[in-house]
Amino acid sequence: MEVCDPQMSYFFQYLLYFIPSGIYSCSSEVLLEAVFLSVDPYMRPFSRVRMQAGDVMIGTQVAKVIQSNNPSFPVGCHVVSRCGWRTHTVSAESDITNILDDWPQDVSLSHALGAIGMPGLTALYGLEEVCAIKPGETLLVNAAAGAVGSVAGQIAKLKGCKVVGSAGSDDKVAYLKELGFDQAFNYKTVPSLEEALKNASPEGYDCYFENVGGPFSSVAILQMKVFGRIAVCGGISLYNDTTPQTGPYPHLQMIFKQLKMEGFLVGRWEHKNDESLKRMLTWMQEGNLKCKEHVTVGFENMPAAFMGMLRGENIGKAIVKV
């Protein structure tokens, strides 16, 4: 049934009733039904800074096209959309992208929100574009059992690097060892973070994939080698702060060791996404990229899943299945 058909379903009439006049156009939009939704750390700082009470919470989802006026997105196809926390959305073409054409039947579409999606791309570009990591180098990853860190560590191993991971529970450390990390430790239980980092890699670190910030970062920077590179994609230890954290300040170490520290957003390399996603999907099919998911069932449980993810309850990617 076309979106503009005068015999449209009662549900769609009901949906259109709540859409402000002028927003919906019959020319090219589609009606989406969410299948999987993502909860990610970036939602916390973004919602605090850029959102107002009553706004729809931001976020991505895998959705099914259930009505369409756009031949690029026929009824029944699946897309990744930036529709936020909603079960049904009338969406424009600019807000959605098709799932890869050759997506395997035995791979859950939920991975398009994880390792074969934005988190995976973040890991890939942080290593390849920011760190320019090379075979034989040593990489440090914190929050290493999460959606981004777990992929970053595995990609570095594929590139012939030594990888050290830090996580917040013994179960997560065990998972990192299953993934092939050379060294892994629980930062909450080690007597000294500095000693744990030194023991894991006495010669220091060439690259550091930074997800956490705060005191961890202050200690880790001191362990970098000369000309070390640091890719900063997150700072989860800072997201709930009401008073900004202060020092210590690593400027002298950065000068003497001539370190490069660069923050980045994954959208900078959007033009590479199609090739990059295909590459990572191939790694997954070959068994070289393993991806665990923490699945919460029920759209009504989105807030609980989000808060649990921020508390570190998930191993791998946190997903909500509608």
From TrEMBL:
Gene3D superfamilies (UniProt xref): Medium-chain alcohol dehydrogenases, catalytic domain (3.90.180.10), NAD(P)-binding Rossmann-like Domain (3.40.50.720)
Protein family: Belongs to the NADP-dependent oxidoreductase L4BD family.
Enoyl reductase (ER) domain location: 30-320
Domain of life of the native organism: Eukaryota
This protein's GO CC annotations: cytoplasm
Enzyme class: oxidoreductase
UniProt cross-references to CDD domains, sorted A to Z: leukotriene_B4_DH_like (cd08294)
Keywords noted in UniProt: Acetylation, Cytoplasm, Fatty acid metabolism, Hydroxylation, Lipid metabolism, NADP, Oxidoreductase, Phosphoprotein, Prostaglandin metabolism
Keyword Repeat annotated: no
Presence of the UniProt keyword Cytoplasm in the record: yes
Name of the protein in its database record: Prostaglandin reductase 1
Main localization category: cytoplasm
GO BP terms, alphabetized: prostaglandin metabolic process
Organism of this sequence: Sinocyclocheilus anshuiensis
